[in-house]
Design brief:
By secondary structure, the chain is mainly alpha-helical. The protein has a single domain, classed as Orthogonal Bundle (Cytochrome Bc1 Complex, Chain D, domain 2), CATH 1.10.760. The protein is built from 5 helices and no strands. It has helices spanning 2-20, 33-42, 44-47, 72-81, 97-113. The longest helix is centred in the N-terminal third of the chain and has 19 residues, at 2-20. The model is unreliable at 15-19 (pLDDT under 50).
Length: 117
């Protein structure tokens, strides 16, 4: 009986965690799915679905954040170290170097898809 309650508790917890995660609204080509998934796991709670802004953080699909204004290296540093204003905490424990690359690739695709270059 004790095992039954453990299983039920685990399933309910997993369901609640999954249900609360911000889900993407836009479909992306296969080569951007990994970045989109990691973005929505780590970043979307603050930056909103599909990087379109949230309650706590800015919209990343805007001219301010395109490559010519905000380099890939700067995005990576911000993810790793957090923002200089301390508004965004470090995410280095949540993402690997490869996952950061995938997130940036996804963001650049989304910016291009929105007509920003």
């Amino acid at each position: 009986m004790k095992d039954y309650f453990k299983i039920v508790f685990t399933l309910l917890t997993a369901t609640l965690i999954t249900a609360c995660a911000v889900k993407p609204k836009n479909k992306v080509p296969d080569e951007y799915i990994a970045g989109q998934a990691k973005f929505h796991e780590v970043c979307a709670n603050c930056h909103g679905p599909d990087a379109m802004g949230g309650n706590k953080a800015p919209k990343l699909i805007q001219g301010k954040f395109v490559t010519s204004n905000y380099s890939n290296q700067r995005i990576a540093r911000t993810i790793i170290n957090g923002s200089s204003s301390a508004a965004m905490p470090s995410q280095k424990r949540k993402v690997s170097e490869e996952e950061i690359y995938e997130i940036i690739k996804y963001l650049r695709y989304s910016q291009k898809d929105a007509g920003l270059t």
